[in-house]
């Protein structure tokens, strides 16, 4: 393989969009401020200039309307990429994302699949308050017919987004505002980078405990693993990358090696992603476990604006380290 | 001839000054990173909310979107409580839990501060519905931006208001842009006010840079609603001098456009009108302005010195009647917490 490059998560998404728009004329990007403003978070920078207003389309603030437009266009064979300025605003379009997009194939007896990508930042950012901080992965992963992925690195962001656009089903690419400017290694621009949905990745090998994480909790888990190393705890960091489909094989392989698990998720504790992962581990490889599984998630409250309280609500490295020590009886 | 009661104009000029000086301080404190999250300033639009409260009663209801500092101040929420909210302090109008976009003040009938575009317009119908239900003659003032008029919630709310004849005034603060999207690029109508006609709601356009025009027009609307409940729609044409939020450089509009509106400044205009009519001296104006600046500065000090909301209270406001966080203990020890949870649900 030729030289790897360093690019930002934002650039990686931008490359993915540009490549898929270039490759397939039925792909278009629609959302608030995606064209003339180059995206609220500049993910679509330069795309209007390159692909023109027919394919890079600014909308009014009408999430329910343009998400539904996307589903309709997908019924007749276009491949819409619908950007939500944040997934907190996807709640305005909940009916389209949850009722129309994923149900259509079944309801029509297999006649209408919906090849649509919904993408945008998801999860708490920084002091945005209760309405603007939703981690929606548990809501959407609950819906049969939807696929949900949560890239944490530039490479995953590009590879997963490209795969999502080519998938014949509704796929949600849940990005992270806090990761847009983060950098990482990625193949040269000319390499076709596709990362399959449903494939987790070990981001760091370890022997004593498996930290299952995704999206914003991946950098957090890596930082915690570094610190734990100093205390002679070797943590394996397993990035789910997709919430649905879930790579159970990768989880079980890691757990069979370490026998201890901490799940760190950015969503809520009640019916959160970790609850599902936890259930599957104990159901399928209970005998491999040397300790009860621990979860680190948000507190079960609407997210407060105050910085100190917000910090208390969200998962962080200290909470994760404490949980790891607990399952390691350290 | 104004139809509804009106407040003193010098007092209203003072209110506009207070809003402006408060926002300038907020901007400065945001840059100093004393304020987090998103922060949207109202500078330039002062005549709209001021004109509206000038002709309504203190017990009328106000609800707005996230550009809400001015609406709270206009309602009578203290600058201290507003600034403390921006600082995330326990003394803030939402106890530091809401932040810039979520100002609430029950005592002053300020029903938020709502950050999902369009989502509060149906709430305004609910406020107005309750007034009618209880045979109260209150009016609900519902403010929103030009960007909100393309949300489904907005359309459903207008139809409900018309159908149920609810005493609510929909006040669209048309500052020409929703973030970087101009009205022409977001809305199929030639003018926003035509939305009202589609729902058979009486509507009018006011010059949102002109305090008297806003007040006098609303005065008649309010009088009519108090007599016989019905919805109304007012499009206030105005302008925000600053970017959409603190992080927006506003490169989608021209300097000339901004200058044009700055020359039409609502504070300068009312000052000139009052001075011309002999109701205000330069000395008096300077005194008012000095006082507004002092209060804004004082508010910063108050906010800085205030306590943070206590960590122990984290769960107190998730449900009414207090925390229901289950004790992390074994089921057999858990019955007290469960009873509490059951009681709250
Ligand atoms: C449902 C929803 N979509 C998008 C946003 C992001 N957003 C916040 S303000 C805004 C522009 C709104 O403009 P306008 O209604 O004209 O009000 P103004 O900012 O001019 O006061 C957008 C798109 C949001 N808060 N809620």
Describe what you observe in this structure.
- The complex is a heterodimer of chains A (330) and B (345).
- By secondary structure, chain A is an alpha/beta fold.
- Chain A folds into two domains: 182 residues, Rossmann fold (3-Layer(aba) Sandwich); 125 residues, Rossmann fold.
- In chain A, 37% of the residues lie in helices and 18% in strands.
- Chain A has eleven helices and 14 strands.
- In chain A, the strands form three sheets. Chain A has a seven-stranded mixed sheet, sandwiched between helices.
- In chain A, helix 6 links the parallel strand 6 and strand 7.
- The radius of gyration of chain A is 20 Å and the shape is globular.
- The model of chain A has no long low-confidence stretch (mean pLDDT 97).
- Chain B is of the alpha/beta class.
- Chain B has a single domain, classed as Rossmann fold.
- Helices cover 43% and strands 10% of the residues of chain B.
- Chain B has 13 helices and eight strands.
- In chain B, the strands form two sheets. A six-stranded parallel sheet of chain B has the order 2-1-3-4-8-7, sandwiched between helices. In chain B, strands 5-6 form a two-stranded antiparallel ribbon.
- In chain B, helix 1 packs antiparallel against helix 11, helix 2 runs parallel beside helix 3 and helix 5 runs parallel beside helix 6.
- The mean pLDDT of chain B is 94.
- At the A-B interface, helix 3 and helix 10 of A face loops of B.
- The complex binds thiamine diphosphate.
- Thiamine diphosphate sits at the interface of chains B and A.
């Amino acid at each position: 393989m030729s030289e790897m490059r360093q690019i930002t998560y934002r650039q990686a998404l931008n490359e993915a969009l540009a490549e898929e728009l270039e490759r397939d004329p039925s792909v278009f990007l629609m959302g608030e401020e995606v064209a003339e403003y180059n995206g609220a978070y500049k993910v679509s920078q330069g795309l209007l200039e390159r692909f023109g207003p027919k394919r890079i389309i600014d909308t009014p603030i009408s999430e329910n309307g343009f998400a539904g437009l996307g589903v309709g266009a997908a019924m007749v064979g276009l491949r819409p990429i619908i950007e939500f300025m944040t997934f907190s605003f996807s709640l305005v379009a909940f009916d389209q994302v949850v009722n129309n997009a994923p149900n259509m194939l079944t309801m029509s007896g297999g006649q209408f699949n919906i090849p649509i990508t919904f993408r945008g930042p998801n999860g708490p950012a920084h002091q945005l308050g209760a309405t603007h901080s939703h981690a929606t992965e548990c809501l959407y992963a609950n819906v049969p017919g939807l696929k949900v992925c949560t890239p944490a690195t530039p490479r995953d962001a590009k590879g997963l987004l490209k795969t999502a656009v080519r998938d014949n089903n509704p796929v949600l690419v849940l990005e992270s505002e806090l990761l847009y400017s983060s950098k990482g290694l990625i193949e040269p621009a000319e390499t076709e980078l596709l990362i399959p949905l449903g494939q987790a990745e070990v981001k760091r090998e370890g022997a004593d405990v498996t930290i299952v994480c995704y999206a914003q909790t991946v950098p957090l888990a890596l930082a915690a693993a570094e610190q734990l190393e100093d205390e002679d705890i070797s943590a394996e960091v397993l990035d789910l990358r997709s919430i649905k489909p879930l790579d159970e094989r990768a989880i079980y392989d890691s757990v069979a090696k370490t026998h201890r698990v901490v799940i760190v998720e950015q969503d809520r504790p009640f019916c959160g992603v970790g609850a599902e992962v936890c259930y599957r581990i104990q159901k399928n490889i209970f005998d491999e476990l040397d300790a009860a599984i621990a979860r680190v998630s948000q507190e079960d409250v609407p997210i407060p604006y105050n910085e100190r309280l917000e910090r208390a609500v969200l998962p962080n490295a200290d909470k994760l380290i404490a949980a790891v020590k607990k399952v390691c009886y350290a | 001839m104004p139809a509804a009661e009106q407040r003193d104009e010098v007092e209203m000029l003072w209110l506009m000054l207070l809003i402006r000086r408060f926002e300038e301080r907020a901007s400065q404190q945001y840059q100093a990173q004393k304020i987090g999250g998103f922060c949207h300033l109202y500078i330039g639009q002062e005549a709209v909310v001021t004109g509206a409260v000038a002709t309504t009663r203190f017990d009328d209801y106000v609800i707005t979107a996230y550009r809400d500092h001015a609406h709270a101040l206009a309602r009578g929420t203290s600058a201290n409580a507003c600034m403390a909210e921006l600082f995330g302090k326990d003394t803030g109008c939402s106890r530091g839990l809401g932040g810039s976009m979520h100002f609430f003040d029950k005592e002053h009938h300020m029903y938020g501060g709502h950050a999902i575009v369009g989502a509060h317009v149906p709430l305004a119908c609910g406020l107005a519905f309750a007034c009618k239900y209880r045979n109260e003659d209150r009016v609900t003032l519902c403010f929103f931006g030009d960007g909100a008029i393309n949300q489904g919630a907005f359309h459903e709310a207008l139809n409900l208001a018309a159908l149920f004849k609810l005493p609510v005034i929909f006040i669209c603060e048309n500052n020409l842009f929703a973030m970087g999207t101009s009205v022409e690029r977001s809305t199929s109508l030639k003018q926003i006010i035509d939305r009202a006609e589609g729902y058979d709601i009486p509507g009018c356009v006011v010059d949102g840079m002109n305090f008297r025009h806003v007040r006098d027009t609303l005065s008649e609307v309010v009088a009519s609603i108090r007599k016989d409940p019905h919805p109304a729609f007012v499009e206030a044409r105005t302008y925000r001098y600053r970017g959409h939020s603190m992080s927006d450089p506003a490169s989608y509009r021209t300097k000339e456009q901004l200058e044009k509106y700055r020359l039409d400044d609502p504070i300068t205009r009312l000052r000139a009108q009052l001075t011309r009519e002999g109701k205000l001296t330069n000395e008096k104006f300077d005194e008012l302005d000095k006082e507004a600046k002092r209060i804004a500065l004082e508010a910063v000090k108050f906010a800085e010195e205030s306590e943070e909301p206590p960590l122990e209270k984290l769960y107190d406001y998730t449900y009414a009647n207090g925390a229901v966080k289950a004790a992390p203990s074994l089921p057999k020890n858990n019955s007290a917490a469960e009873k509490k949870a059951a009681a709250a649900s």
